[in-house]
Amino acid sequence: RPGLALCAGCGGRIQDPFLLRVSPDLEWHVACLKCAECGQLLDETCTCFLRDGKAYCKRDYSRLFGIKCAQCRAAFSSSDLVMRARDHVYHLECFRCAACGRQLLPGDQFCLRERDLLCRADHGPPPDGAAARGPRSP
Predict the structure, then answer these.
(1) In angstroms, rounded to a whole number, what is the distance separating the alpha carbons of residues 12 and 52?
(2) Pairing verdict, β 48-51 and 26-28
(3) Membrane-spanning residues where (predicted)?
(4) Is the whole model's pTM more than 0.85, yes or no?
(5) Rounded to an integer, what distance in angstroms lies between the CA atom of residue 57 and that of residue 12?
């Protein structure tokens, strides 16, 4: 198909003997498939991620679009263990009481107020039997 495809990077016709196809409908000149953020060439040796028609290397895609710790705002690596509270995700070392700084461990009762985690000692008992009406924090 060389000569028929249009490059998603530069928009020009691909007449080269080789092209890179990243998804069923996006094709690039070999020299045009670069990370939209850092410019690193993306080929068969480098993982490529697409977002809104733009290609990214793994590092930049994770930095820009990956889930980040609700406390320190840093991205997670694939080997990180995490803690979750509602829709927030934390590094283990960041899962701490905002008032006293104590690290919260699996099984500890806590409260999430706005973005602040509070241990049982700092958030006190639930008001007016609220524990009977809703699920307990993990």
Answers:
(1) 19
(2) unpaired
(3) none
(4) no
(5) 22
